[in-house]
Amino acid sequence: MAGTGAMMGAMFGAETGKLLDRAARTCDRNGSRLTDIRRHVLGLVLDSDRPVGAYDLLDRLRQSHKGAAPPTVYRALDFLQEQGLIHKVERLSAFVGCVQDDRGHDHAHHDHKVQFLICSVCQRTVEIDEPRIADALEAAAARHGFVPRRSTIELEGLCADCVAEADRAEQAREPG
Amino acid sequence: MAGTGAMMGAMFGAETGKLLDRAARTCDRNGSRLTDIRRHVLGLVLDSDRPVGAYDLLDRLRQSHKGAAPPTVYRALDFLQEQGLIHKVERLSAFVGCVQDDRGHDHAHHDHKVQFLICSVCQRTVEIDEPRIADALEAAAARHGFVPRRSTIELEGLCADCVAEADRAEQAREPG
DNA sequence: AGTATCGACGTTATAGTATAACAGCTCGGC
DNA sequence: GCCGAGCTGTTATACTATAACGTCGATACT
Ligand SMILES: [Zn+2]
Ligand SMILES: [Zn+2]
Ligand SMILES: [Zn+2]
Ligand SMILES: [Zn+2]
């Protein structure tokens, strides 16, 4: 009667629980099965505030799922990417949840146009959605007779928080 | 007295030889040393018509340089990237020569804005230079209070040649 | 010359990321 | 019951990259 859906829902935070329920509905709609393992891996990804590596996920998954091995987690990750529920951050070889539905953008074509800002200091990664970037890239491709399929657009730098932090450190060292 | 610079120049094609000589001058200007190993690795990269993986380079390097090991080639690759002579194609974990000088664009800031079109079929990769893409990405970053450092912009798809090839195959299967 | 230093390289070992290959299981339709 | 498809278990391995430490030679200062 807790009302959040699957029996293992309580293992994650409330926000994650909601996202998991939505993911379950998405998979239903797609005629694909969000199994326990897949759901669990997705929960681990969503519960993190920064991208998570496959072997980190494996370690965490093993706490509740003794038999897990690399293929276990890579299969789940492949499935979740196919469903558009997570993305891979290439620069970090790590995975983040997709928050597309929060912003209502077109899922069907979304995978091709994922864009990330990645903080070198804290690793926090935000997915942005700038049509101008994708448009400019596609226009350039067209000029080369190139038929686009998937793009990797990632910008590494310092997030606002870490810039502020660095400024504070600078001030402390050289006050006035 | 052959006039092309280093003694090993003859190992590569004429075009590659010219690029190697230019690279030697670039390094001179930078006060850095284009050693035999570095020059050889650069030659191997330049002589390929598609991106080359580090272990492929290692195999080829070993044909003339028995003692080579992974660090040998990775050190050379790091150096060449620092000099702006090659780029890494992240999606392929492979390396291509930079042709910047052919187009006279700004080298100092170029590394941050490298853009590739990568063919999924033949792996051939072309470096493009579309300021609008970098501009749009930087504008988006600014809007998030994000300070950019290095970007990865790669579009995977089908090159014009492979599209034509695919079309021919299609025609053959369904003529008329 | 002596020697401190630095950059490049040799060598061995290991970390980190990802997949191949095959076996077993379950579930639903026939 | 039987089959086929999809999911998982399990072992082994491939591929990419770096750590750590030792050697050597050139440079430069004394
Ligand atoms: Zn997304
Ligand atoms: Zn940060
Ligand atoms: Zn370039
Ligand atoms: Zn092609």
Automatic annotation (TrEMBL), chains A, B:
SUPFAM superfamilies attached to this UniProt entry: Winged helix' DNA-binding domain (SSF46785)
Keywords: DNA-binding, Repressor, Transcription, Transcription regulation, Zinc
Source species, domain of life: Bacteria
CDD domains reported for this sequence: Fur_like
Statement: the UniProt record of this protein carries the keyword Mitochondrion: no
Zinc in keyword set: yes
Similarity remark: Belongs to the Fur family.
Protein's name in the database: Transcriptional repressor
Species for this entry: Endosaccharibacter trunci
Lineage, highest ranks first: Bacteria, Pseudomonadati, Pseudomonadota, Alphaproteobacteria, Acetobacterales
